[in-house]
Amino acid sequence: MKDNTFGKKYGLIAGVGMIAYFLLFYMFDKALMVSIGVSWSSLVILLICLFLAVRKHRDARGGVLEFKEGLRIGFLVVVLGNLLFYLFFYFLLKMDPELVTILKEQSIEFSAWFLEEEHHEALKESYADFNFGFSEFLFALGRSIIGGFFLALLAALTLKRQGTL
């Protein structure tokens, strides 16, 4: 039987940690909360939890960790942490429509850095009816889980240790 104790524990810790991190910014500055810098910096919480879970799992097995086990535990942390966070984010955006407006404005502003003028204008028009609905929730969750897979892969590669024969 596969033991997912550390994956579940640290996945929940990662999710709650990211939620607390974003709520801290939400209380002080909503625009800062949905900024790219805060979003990317929240990965530190996920990374710490991911590596701790894989390491604790390895240590509980007498220091032995197969790559496949490490990947499974790390990926469980990614899935649970992101699922909790994006459920929170989805419901927060539903409760506070002002956040959707801020998010939309920041996305349009950020896109001006790398889009040509005509594409930037087209993006502005397409964002006129932007609403963080369930499909956007699933897309954001999926994108985070795919990216997180590579972080779990890194943790498994870094922390794997073969047992003695």
What do these coordinates show?
With 165 residues, this protein is an all-alpha fold. It has helices at 5-28, 30-33, 36-41, 43-60, 67-95, 97-111, 117-126, 134-159. The protein has one domain (5-159). The protein is 80% helix and 0% strand.
Summarize the biggest pleated sheet.
none
Give unreliable regions as ranges.
none
Question: How would you sum up the global shape?
Answer: elongated
Q: Considering DSSP H and I runs of 4 or more, what fraction of the residues is helical?
A: over 70%
Q: What are the secondary-structure elements, in order, as H or E?
A: HHHHHHHH
Overall SS class:
mainly alpha
Count of β-strands: 0
- Distance N terminus to C terminus? 22 Å
Helix segment tally: 8
Radius of gyration: 19 Å
Number of domains: 1
On the 0 to 100 scale, the average pLDDT is 87
Question: Into which percentage range does the β-strand content fall?
Answer: under 5%
List the defining traits of the structure above.
8 helices, elongated, mainly alpha, about 160 residues
Brief summary:
With 165 residues, this protein is mainly alpha-helical. It has helices at residues 5-28, 30-33, 36-41, 43-60, 67-95, 97-111, 117-126, 134-159. The protein has one domain.
Describe the secondary-structure layout.
Blueprint: H1 5-28, H2 30-33, H3 36-41, H4 43-60, H5 67-95, H6 97-111, H7 117-126, H8 134-159
Helix pairs in contact: 1-4, 1-5, 4-5, 4-8, 5-6, 5-8
